[in-house]
Amino acid sequence: MTQGVALTADELAGVMDRAVCLHDAAAVNDALDRLARDITGQMADLRPLILGVMTGAIVPLGRLLPRLDFPLEVDYIHATRYHKTTTGRDLVWLARPQTPLRGRHVLLVDDILDEGHTFRGLLEHCREEGAMSVRTAVLADKPNAGRVPGLAADFVGLTVPERYVFGVGMDYKGYLRNADAIYAADPVDED
Ligand SMILES: O=P(O)(O)OC[C@H]1O[C@H](OP(=O)(O)OP(=O)(O)O)[C@H](O)[C@@H]1O
Ligand code: HPA
């Protein structure tokens, strides 16, 4: 299910102009280096199965993998709840991993942890499928009052404020995932 509106190039240029850069490209690079170091420290001996949470994980996962120098497998999992809008709804499953999870040490990698309903659903799935352990890594953590109680990522790259953010995998209404820094949309663009 895909909702949201088709945005013109002019409208997107306006969103970019009004946005505030929260973490520039250098800060994102440093955060990915740190994430890789922390993940390596905990998981290098576990031959983990890394699951990218589509679609937002594409950029952070693609940039993280070459920084991980140990045996690992990669697959993907696809559940979504924002549907190209700025408001989360029910989690809709689009694809479950093809790799059996039983007995595996799993690392879920996503672009952002916001209210946490996505991770809650994915963690439950991995545990039901018999994963031996499940850890979570996000490029951006957005602490907020609506967070699923007790839910936190094991590995966090950067913290972002309670604004709608985009770039480095995170979308603005389906666009701007390819921006190479993390931006906060102006409040006028949040609806
Ligand atoms: O913590 P939550 O409030 O659940 O939000 C986080 C999720 O929302 C985004 O996915 P989205 O549903 O927008 O799909 P996308 O990955 O295709 O952007 C993001 O990539 C996370 O998976
Ligand atoms: O702030 C956000 N930006 C992009 N995608 C998201 N998914 C949840 N929150 C966000």
Automatic annotation (TrEMBL):
<dbReference type="InterPro" id="IPR000836">
    <property type="entry name" value="PRTase_dom"/>
</dbReference>
<dbReference type="Pfam" id="PF00156">
    <property type="entry name" value="Pribosyltran"/>
</dbReference>
<dbReference type="InterPro" id="IPR050408">
    <property type="entry name" value="HGPRT"/>
</dbReference>
<protein>
    <submittedName>
        <fullName>Hypoxanthine-guanine phosphoribosyltransferase</fullName>
        <ecNumber>2.4.2.8</ecNumber>
    </submittedName>
</protein>
<keyword id="KW-0808">Transferase</keyword>
<dbReference type="InterPro" id="IPR029057">
    <property type="entry name" value="PRTase-like"/>
</dbReference>
<dbReference type="GO" id="GO:0016757">
    <property type="term" value="F:glycosyltransferase activity"/>
</dbReference>
<keyword id="KW-0328">Glycosyltransferase</keyword>
<feature type="domain" description="Phosphoribosyltransferase">
    <location>
        <begin position="22"/>
        <end position="171"/>
    </location>
</feature>
